[in-house]
Design a protein that fits this description.
- Helices cover about 50% and strands about 5% of the residues.
- It is α+β, with helices and mostly antiparallel strands.
- Helix 8 runs antiparallel to helix 9.
- The chain starts with 8 loop residues before the first helix and ends with a helix.
Length: about 450
């Protein structure tokens, strides 16, 4: 396989992206893309004034002071590549972003962050991006990002890689490349350039850097698209060729999961939106604890012991017990289940440091045990509680809220939007931004969403 092999999968990926036409897309795809956009905007604006965003913005401004692209929920403008980084970074700050559960990829952040940044740049040049063009770029980027994740996962990549950092830059490059009107060969180069920048470790979990990995994927994708637009080539084998992304990560070069039914079956329809602001693998156990607290009437002070049976990923990714900061708590199975049993809720307040350090929550974690059950599905969990009087109560969840089989409704997503954006912008401005998201397909200038978010 030569560097410019015409049989490499990047050619199929570019052909798929360039052939997309909004009216011809299946109705479920045309319905889901705006939902992904609305959820992403809510997450980015909702976290815009968090300490993690303040620190990230200060760090970028130490290198550069201004640019053509605005930041959601804030007043600053920055360069196109760093706007992609920062807006994506913000969207993951509260661990409320979407998840392709089969691969634990958070797909929309890098793709939407890159697309919005390019839209702002184009608007500053008098060539605004229309809503339909943004949505096509979103569909192309999400679909190819999820498919690359599937190929990596199928090859048995090690658990420690942060999947969004491996595939997110590719999705971002596709979206940015379409909005820059790249032709086939230059889009192939953009894909390759993005693949060569893949990276990210799950060791960043529990720190601000958990947001940095998807943010860098967004920035890398934008850089790849702009470099390719200038004629900087990369060849075509960076994904499935010798020493390419798949072989380096998995030891093989099987691009079958990327090619299979490409254009007829949409993998990104298996993307999900979170009802709770924490690692999605915790959500089935949260549902079980909510049932025990709200429906079965369990009181935390009456609990002697809690036993959980969960999918292995819940412990592989969210094993932390007794976290002492909010970032660690975002990915702690034990914190969230204890917090739900104490407070009867699983919202942003349960992720705040006050709840993390609540003596009642911490004491309950000490009386919890969790068992990984290989036979369980990723939307399943069982929680059993032994009360001090000897009574045993159990809740089994096999269809968690927000999963592929039990997705959040439009009404639930809009309530999530208001809950995230309202405290930042106020009720009236939150409503205006929501309406702009709902009408994204007909907008003439996507970059106007930034002004509405301020």
């Amino acid at each position: 396989m030569t560097a410019f092999d015409p049989t490499s999968v990047t050619h199929d990926m570019a052909r798929f992206a360039l052939a997309l036409d909004w009216p011809s897309l299946p109705e479920p795809v045309r319905r889901e893309a705006p939902r992904a956009w609305m959820n992403w905007i809510a997450c980015a604006v909702g976290a815009a004034r968090m300490p993690v965003m303040d620190a990230a913005v200060r760090g970028i401004q130490a290198m550069e002071q201004a640019g053509e692209a605005g930041l959601l929920g804030r007043g600053e403008s920055i360069s196109v590549s760093n706007a992609a980084l920062l807006n994506c970074l913000g969207s993951s700050a509260q661990t409320y972003d979407d998840t392709h559960l089969a691969t634990i990829t958070h797909p929309t952040g890098p793709v939407a962050g890159a697309a919005l940044a390019v839209a702002c740049k184009r608007a500053s040049m008098g060539a605004p991006v229309a809503g339909r063009d943004l949505l096509i770029a979103l569909v192309a980027g999400l679909e190819l990002e999820c498919r690359v994740s599937c190929a990596i996962a199928a090859g048995g990549s090690r658990q420690g890689w942060y999947m969004t950092g491996l595939s997110g830059g590719i999705g971002a490059a596709v979206a940015a490349g379409l909005l820059l009107n790249l032709d086939h060969e230059r889009l192939v180069s953009a894909l390759g350039l993005a693949a060569t920048q893949a990276g990210g470790l799950r060791a960043t979990h529990g720190s601000m850097a958990i947001t940095y990995v998807p943010g860098m994927a967004a920035r890398n994708g934008v850089a790849a698209a702009y470099m390719a637009s200038a004629g900087f080539d990369c060849g075509s084998i960076a994904v499935d060729g010798r020493n390419g992304l798949l072989q380096v990560l998995t030891g093989a070069t099987d691009a079958g999961p990327i090619r299979m039914e490409l254009g007829t079956r949409y993998e990104f329809l298996n993307n999900t939106y979170k009802p709770y602001p924490c690692g999605i693998v915790i959500h089935p156990a949260i549902d079980a604890c909510l049932d025990l607290a709200r429906v079965q009437g369990v009181k935390a002070e009456d609990i002697d012991r809690v036993d959980m049976r969960v999918h292995p990923d819940a412990l592989n990714l969210c094993w932390r017990k007794l976290p002492d900061n909010a970032m660690d708590a975002q990915v702690s199975l034990f914190h969230w289940t204890a917090a739900v049993l104490v407070h009867g809720a699983a919202g942003l307040a349960q992720g705040d440091i006050a709840c993390v350090l609540d003596p009642r929550v911490r004491a309950l974690q000490e009386r919890m045990k969790a068992e990984a059950v290989v036979a369980m599905s990723d939307n399943e969990a069982e929680v059993s509680i032994r009360l001090k009087n000897g009574q045993l109560l159990t809740s089994h969840i096999d269809n968690a809220t927000g999963s592929v089989t039990n997705p959040m409704t439009d009404t639930q997503l809009m309530e999530k939007f208001r809950g995230l954006v309202g405290p930042v912008l106020g009720g009236t401005n939150s409503h205006r931004l929501l309406q702009a998201c709902l009408n994204i397909e007909s907008t003439k200038d996507v970059s106007a969403i930034v002004a509405l978010s301020r």
